[in-house]
Amino acid sequence: MDGISQAILEHADGAGTRGVAMGQLVDALVGRGYTPEAVEQAIWALLGARRLTPSGFLCRQLRRRDPFGEIVQTRCYELLLAPWSSELDHQLDLDLASDEAEVDDEDDPPR
Predict the structure, then answer these.
(1) Which of 71, 60, 64, 54 is nearest to 18 (CA)?
(2) What is the pLDDT of residues 65-81, one digit of tens each?
(3) Which of 12, 101, 1, 15 is CA-nearest to residue 45?
């Protein structure tokens, strides 16, 4: 395993079962001399190899002013990442093309 992958897994392992936010992980390794792109690519490779797994997500609410000066609020979601575990592995097995998949749209706005 290369150095960047090992550093990612060590950092994620240090966060415990909750995991570490992907952005925090990238920032920490950029501080150790890696480029953001290299860290991001290594994270996706580790996810694909099932060495790293999502353990949840966090939601950040961002506020900014639009061109007219009005405050606009948006949400930004970020994965929490943890070293692979059999308990969390099932999250990666998504059958997105399934005809039987049902979506609960009760909370969707009217069309």
Answers:
(1) 54
(2) 999 999 999 999 999 99
(3) 1
Show the domains of the chain with their CATH numbers.
3-88 (1.10.10)
Instruction: Name the token pair of 100.
Output: 């039987």
The DSSP bridge partners found for residue 82 are 53
3-state secondary structure of 53: strand
pLDDT digits (tens, 9 = 90+) for 45-56: 999 998 999 988
Do 19 and 56 contact (CB within 8 A), yes or no?
yes
The SS3 call for residue 66 is coil
Q: What is the model's pTM?
A: 0.71
* C-alpha span between 74 and 58 (Å, rounded): 14
